[in-house]
Amino acid sequence: MLQSIKKRVMSGITVVAAGILLATPVLGADPVRINGSGSGLHMLKPLIEAYSKANPEAQFEMDKPLGSSGSIKALMAGVVDIAVSSRALKPEESQAGATLEKYGQTPLALVAHKGVTKKDLTTQELVDIFAGKTQNWPDAQPIRLVLRPVEDADTKLLRKLSPEMDAAITSAQERPGMTIAVTDPEAVEAIAKTPGSLGASGLTGVIVERLPLAVINLNGVAPTPETLAKGSFPFAKALDFVTINTALPEAAKKFLAFVYSPEGRKVAEAAGVLITAGEKSPF
Amino acid sequence: MKTQFSSVSRITSLIAGIIAAVIAIAGPCSYFLVSRYYLLANLKTDNELTASAITKIIATNPKTWRFEEIRISEILHRRDQKDVFECRRVLDGKGMEVAKSIEEMPWPTISSTLDIYDAGMVVAWIEHTRSIRPMVIRTALVAALSIVLGGLVFVVLRLIPMRAVATAYGKLSQNEIRYRSLYNSIREGLGLFSPINGTDNTLEDLELIDANPALERILEKPSQELIGMRGASVLGGVLLNYRLEIAQVMADNSTFRFETRDAGREHYYDVNVFAPTPSTFAVLVEDVTERKRAEEQIHRLAYYDHLTQLPNRFLLLERMEQHLARAAREGTSIALLFLDLDRFKHINDTLGHAYGDQLLIEVGKRLSDGRRKCDTIARLGGDEFVLLVFCDDGDAMGITLLAQKLIDRLASPFLIADRQVFSGTSIGIATFPTDGTDCETLLKNADLAMYAAKEAGRNSYCYFTPEMNSRAYARMEMDAKIRHALAHDEFYLVFQPVMDIGTNRVSSAECLIRWRDGSGTLIMPGVFIPVAEESGLILSIGDWVIKEACRKLKVWAEAGLPPVKISVNVSARQFGQRSFLDFLLNTIDSAGIDARFLELELTESSLMEDPQEVAGALNRIKERGLSIAIDDFGTGYSSLSYLTRLPIDRLKVDRSFVREMTSNANDRAIVEAIFAMAGKLGIRVVVEGVEEKEQVAFLATLGCQYVQGYYFHRPLEEENFLKLLTA
Lengths: 283, 727
What we know:
The complex is a heterodimer of chains A (283) and B (727).
Chain A: H1 2-23, E1 32-36, H2 38-54, E2 60-61, H3 67-76, E3 82-85, H4 91-95, E4 98-113, E5 120-121, H5 123-131, E6 144-147, H6 153-159, H7 163-174, E7 179-180, H8 184-193, E8 197-202, H9 203-209, E9 213-218, H10 225-230, E10 236-244, H11 250-260, H12 262-270, E11 274-275
Parallel strand pairs in A: 1-2, 1-3, 5-9, 6-7, 6-8
Antiparallel strand pairs in A: 3-10, 4-8, 4-9, 4-10, 4-11
Chain B: H1 2-60, H2 69-78, E1 86-92, E2 97-100, E3 109-118, E4 121-131, H3 133-185, E5 189-197, E6 203-211, H4 213-219, H5 223-226, H6 243-252, E7 256-262, E8 267-277, E9 280-287, H7 289-303, H8 313-330, E10 333-341, H9 344-351, H10 353-370, E11 376-381, E12 384-391, H11 396-411, E13 414-416, E14 419-421, E15 425-432, H12 439-455, E16 461-463, H13 466-487, E17 491-500, E18 505-516, E19 522-523, H14 525-535, H15 537-558, E20 565-570, H16 572-575, H17 580-591, E21 598-603, H18 604-608, H19 611-623, E22 627-633, H20 642-645, E23 650-653, H21 655-659, H22 665-681, E24 684-687, H23 693-701, E25 706-707, H24 718-726
Parallel strand pairs in B: 15-16, 18-20, 20-21, 21-22, 22-23, 23-24, 24-25
Antiparallel strand pairs in B: 1-2, 1-4, 3-4, 5-6, 5-9, 7-8, 8-9, 10-12, 10-15, 11-12, 13-14, 17-18, 17-25, 18-19
Helix pairs in contact in B: 1-2, 1-3, 9-10, 10-11, 13-14, 13-15, 14-15, 15-17
């Protein structure tokens, strides 16, 4: 976990450094501060890289993901300019001036350690695994679950698969010795490093991080923007932008415009995002 | 004691209550404090672990860590214990809540906080709150148990010791009741005193602080008056005379006793002093008046003659020892006057013991009146008295005068029960050191001298001479010879015929004893009878005579000799024996003789001892056919009424009247009177001592039929008597 955090921090620093590098010609300009859910930041990572190439002066500050709620709080606190959220705004957040603009979705993929040979799981198999009834893969390798926090959007998403799944997740959360990954980056990193592991991560993380992971189909359906678009894959993580319009810096607006632009949409789709917003930037 | 018990009870209850309260309070308090300490330590440890995790989050994300609610909440949640009500909160440096585990929990709560640092600065703190309601509930349970335990402890600590104390007090109380009862009921007076010391710390006075009822009786005062009495008022102040001893008793817990006399009440007390406590002493007062009097009585009985109240033999010997020692020391003389009353035996026999005793008392008084204070008059027993006198050496005249004075004093008649009784005394005198140097010798020699005086003619005195010892020796020798004679049949009977002067034939015969010793020497009764009477052998001799007379009658009867009545003399002493009658009748039965041929000759004094008993005995004798004659008639008791009451066959007129009967008108008148009286009473008369023809002729004129005397026959040997009988 520690190494995972370190890596993510390093990753963040890298983005900032790139931003600083890109923004060198415009010395003194404020960086665009971005945070949000792990999947959101995974999506933004190639977008920032693409935007920075075209706008070398642009500077970005993107720490490790605070999650949807954390990033919205940070937004409200003026610590970040753009929050990427996987959930809708709470009334008090809206009242405080926050606005949410839809952008897209990414499938919440079931991912396993690359050594896991099973490529497909049924809902029942998944329930049995989370309930602890099935403890080994077909090749007798122990199944090591990598869970997400109880209040995390990904956990809530998985619960919605079925009441049995809901109960199985509760059971898993209560079992001792479980690995908990707070963010998407942490989750994929943990899964990549843990033999026999099974967890969930936004597809953006799998694609952007390029980690040695095995993506598991659910009931024969692969987690892709396409299956998501068709509605055949059940887990979709929203990737929306929350801002406070009155406090949104121009640089941020400009970047978001890029994100909504056709170039940006391509980069995002390449990162595994099903874009549901229109091409016109709301910013 | 009840107050002390209440005090012990209160103290025990208080101590038990304190201990019980400590247990009841300390139990839950200790439990609560220890639990609280443990909980705080637990919270602190938990906080440190939580803070450690959060510190890492902060360190990796110092700017926006506070927005990592999910991660921090996850950490906070992950530390949750499902069965424990607790809340963890993380607050940033401004006190804004960053994350918390739960919203609410039951009151009351306890909190522990821990600062979280980043780069050496406090950037946040963690607050860990836990509900202590379970702990409070458990504390309440512990409190309940502690109260129960405290209650039990109270019961155990109070009841058990109190029960033991109550038992001990009960026993103590019973003991006190028992000893109080003893104290109150003992016959001895018991008084408890408190000493009063003077300025020099010596016992100066004493105060009575308690007294039992017996002491009240002894001192004749109620306890209210006794309590507080000072030493001078108790027992005549005698205790103050023993101050040193009392101080010693109190010092070394010893005891001492003394005897004292209450002069006013003529009471004697035995006083024991002891110290029951170190600060008091007690006296046990026993009224020993009765004991003292009994001792005096015993002393009197032991050392004084109960009849005359004169010193007895023991006291005489004791005093003699003292006097002899003194006389030997001072070179002076002592005279021992041995007195024996003349005719006392006769008076005793004729008038009875009551008169005899009264005579002894009167004699004692006369002797006491005549003695000097330094002299001792004692009664040895019977009619023997001894006067022990100091005399100057060679003062024979003084002793002689004294002896004569005593003789004179006792010679005058005594008035006893309105009767004049004449006695008199014979006195033997022995002196120290001439006649003996020890008590025994002096007494023996004085006794011998007294016998000599008696032999010399009564109412006289006689000094001891060495020859008297020889005579005494001779008497002893005679005594031994008599015993030998009895054992070896040296005695034999002779028979003096009683003649019928009408027919000039033998009518009967009187048996007389003779003694021919081993050497063939004839010893007459006048020689050995007095010795036998003195030694008591007279009884054995009397028995022998009766047995021999019966044997002779039997032999004669078997030999076909003409039957003849023979008479035997029975002394008053022999007749007075309780066993005499049985002996007589058994002897007759054993011999198988006809009792009609046996006659008993009794003296008048024999019949006077106990008239009723004598009459009974004589009647039994008469019933068996024996005859009874009164020997020496006329010389004894002057009352003749017994002649009418007793079954008497014959009177034997004493020879003293016969001797001068023919020449002395008085004697003749007496003999005539005897014949006249006997004739009226139908009693036959035998006249003894007839030695002359004139006497026979005179007696014939009186109608006398039976005579006995030398005129006819001297006592005859058996052979001659039988010849006479068969002639």
